[in-house]
Specification:
The chain has a single domain, classed as Rossmann fold, CATH 3.40.50. It has 10 helices and 10 strands. Helix 4 crosses helix 6 and helix 6 runs parallel beside helix 7. About 45% of the residues are buried.
């Protein structure tokens, strides 16, 4: 059995008084890619952000239940959210390089964390890890905004791995990219999972089927008491099973395109 990195136990997330996603129970395993799929508004990104305490940055957000990281309660009173985000990196939907050189984009995180080693080596290692070194090694001092969209997204992945995280979270990392860049990012994910645990939110079911070892399907349920809609986890399993013989009819309807 693979090693468990996260275990979500009855996790719910509120924004103010509004319940966004309810009672999620989900294990996430080391050196695997776990995809979170489902229609818009079902809580995929909300759950992703609960894994590195990014929801803490949203006023009024509250997480209940237990998010365990190697058995430790990640929301415990003695846990430093900054340290959490060092161990659990994040890549966003839209490439968001800093308005700095390619080199300084990579060096920023290690510098902020007080890195004292050889920065040139760290930058090269991160860019190689993101399959970008050969494309940019002769223009490290150029502004990152001069790169293509696909290169910028790989730069953001390099920036995430420069601080040596254990987990990389990706929130729809390919939705703003063309098919060629998407293929490169997917290829890269498959390479990176030998060293990292990856959790990806994607609207693209073919992408989940191509890259994920396990898939969790979320949907939107009506909360009749409150008259609102709330995200729920329907099921999670090995990706092949989710796409070929899911346990729940709602999953089957979604993956076969009958709704969503």
């Amino acid at each position: 059995m693979p090693t468990e990195v996260f275990n979500l136990n009855d996790v719910s997330v509120y924004y103010g008084k509004s319940l966004a996603v309810q009672n999620v129970n989900l294990p996430i395993y080391r050196n695997e890619i776990t995809a979170l799929i489902g229609p818009s508004g079902c809580g995929k990104s909300t759950i992703l952000r609960s894994l590195n305490r990014m929801n803490d940055l949203i006023p009024g957000a509250k997480v209940t239940g237990k998010v365990s990281y190697h058995g430790q309660d990640m929301y415990g009173p003695d846990v430093d959210p900054v340290q959490v985000r060092k161990l659990i990196g994040m890549v966003f939907q839209k490439p968001n390089p800093f308005p700095k050189s390619i080199y300084d984009n990579i060096a920023f995180g290690p510098k902020t964390l007080g890195f004292k080693g050889n920065m040139d080596d760290t930058v090269e290692e991160a860019l190689r890890g993101a399959a970008l070194w050969d494309e940019v090694k002769d223009r490290l001092k150029d502004n990152a905004f001069g790169m293509s969209g696909g290169q910028q997204q790989r730069l953001c992945i390099a920036r995430a791995i420069a601080v040596k995280p254990e987990v990389i979270l990706m929130d729809e990392p390919c939705s703003a990219l063309d098919p060629v860049s998407t293929f490169k990012i997917e290829d890269l994910m498959n390479e990176l999972k030998s060293e990292y645990t990856i959790v990806i939110v994607t609207h693209n079911m073919q992408q989940a089927a191509r890259v994920a070892d396990r898939t969790a399907f979320f949907t939107v349920a009506s909360d009749d008491e409150a008259g609102s809609r709330v995200g729920v986890l329907v099921e999670h399993d090995e990706t092949a099973k989710i796409f070929s013989s899911p346990s729940n009819e709602k999953t089957l309807d979604y993956v076969t395109g009958r709704f969503g």
